[in-house]
Amino acid sequence: MGNVLSVTSPKDWHGIAQEGAVPPLDPGKWNDDAPDLHLMVIDRQDRLRARCSLWWRNAPAHGSRRLGAIGHYAACDDASAAALLQDASLRLAACKCDYAVGPLDGSTWRSYRFVTDPGNSPPFFLEPTNPPEYPLQFVAAGFGPFAEYVSALRPGPMAAYPQADEAERRLEKSGVIIRPLDPTRLEDELQAIHQASLVIFRQNILFSPISEAEFRALYAPVLSMLQPDTFLLAEREGQLVGFVLGIPNYLQAQRGKQVDTLIIKTLVRRPEPVYAGLGAVLLRRCETIGAQHLGYHRSIHALMHVDNASLTLSKRTARPIRRYTLFGKELPS
Fold first, then answer.
1. Could you give the angle at the alpha carbon of 109 between the alpha carbons of 201 and 115, nearest 5°?
2. Which of 31, 95, 220, 287 has the greatest number of C-beta atoms within 10 Å?
3. Half-sphere exposure of 165 (CA within 13 A, CB side)
């Protein structure tokens, strides 16, 4: 274990030894994620043994609680992790936070959650990964489950969603149309998706608004990988009311396998009763296109909160393959 240092700029960690230690935070992550403070545990050989960032000024809200977020987490050993998380908790408490959550890179729009039950399936594209000791280090520091999530595999052949039949007829009568993303109008499409997301995600746990510029920056790394045929938009009277994002599991190709799995990364709809059943309709349409026209034999319903309606829909056809936890801890007053 070493000393815990606080830094406020990437220039402050130049010169830290790289061998036998965790890598320092990418300065680009610092600039993009804008933490309020970065903490580092440095040993006597100037090696970085553990690190994390803290957010409290613009951390997500949760009822009357004042939250602080702990993210950008990495640790080489349990002793350094314990020192880091203790210091992080004390600093957030000193900033008038009464509850800490982590791992959370400042916002649920960015990286958050630990894999806590890896199951037997290999990781999939855009899934969070972490060493198995990380969640144990949070538990040892007094954190417990704050929110839990699951990913589920739907093996082929992909069956129909009979409950979507009546919903599809009703939605069509009400004027809802479903179409693929138009790559020739990508700027307009992203603007509409951003505006709809601010409304649709508002009820999600730890929701916080995001600017259109930040939203576009989040999509930028995967724009070239999007498959318009499985990125479906539902519109009514020219307004986006729901969408499903299906993206190929590109990690299969990296492992030398055929890409035969479609990841259902996002499935959402507006909350008004008129759109009831739209999630099932979008999911069936997306998986049908993937199976019949693009050669996907399986789908992964990714990173669903255990209380979300999407998990209720998924349970009918898919089996859980991985579980994740976002941790929380009461802070001293």
1. 105
2. 287
3. 4
First-residue to last-residue Cα distance in the chain:
27
Domain assignments of the chain as residue spans, ordered by start: 3-112, 154-323
Distance CA 106, CA 67 (A): 10
Q: For residue 106, how many other CB atoms are within 10 A of its CB?
A: 26
CA distance 227 to 247: 6
Would you tell me which CATH number, out of the four given (3.30.565.10, 3.40.1190.10, 3.40.630.30, 3.40.50.300), belongs to the domain 3-112?
A: 3.40.630.30
Check the CA dihedral 174-262-134-58 and report its sign. negative
User: Of all helices (H) and strands (E), which one includes residue 325?
Assistant: strand 319-330
Distance CA 282, CA 38 (A): 41
For the segment 235-256, what is each residue's pLDDT rounded down to a tens digit?
Answer: 999 999 999 999 999 999 999 9
Query: What is the distance, to the nearest Å, from the Cα of residue 181 to the centroid of all Cα atoms in its chain?
Result: 22
Over range 121-126, report the average pLDDT: 96
What is the maximal distance between C-alpha atoms in the chain? 70
Question: 160: number of CA atoms within 13 Å, CB side?
Answer: 6
| pLDDT score for 15 | 59
With a CB cutoff of 8 Å and minimum separation 6, the contacts of 123 are 129, 251
72 CB-side CA count, 13 A: 25
pLDDT tens digits for range 201-222 = 998 999 999 999 999 999 999 9
- Residue 178's H or E segment, with its range, is strand 176-180
> What is the pLDDT at residue 17?
56
Domains 3-112 and 154-323 share a fold: yes
Look up the CATH number of domain 154-323.
3.40.630.30
Please calculate the CA angle 123-127-128 and round it to the nearest 5 degrees.
100
- 51 contact partners, CB below 8 Å, separation of at least 6: 22, 24, 25, 38, 39, 40, 41, 72, 73, 74, 75, 84
Per-residue tokens: 81: 């992790």
Q: What local confidence, expressed as pLDDT, does residue 46 receive?
A: 83
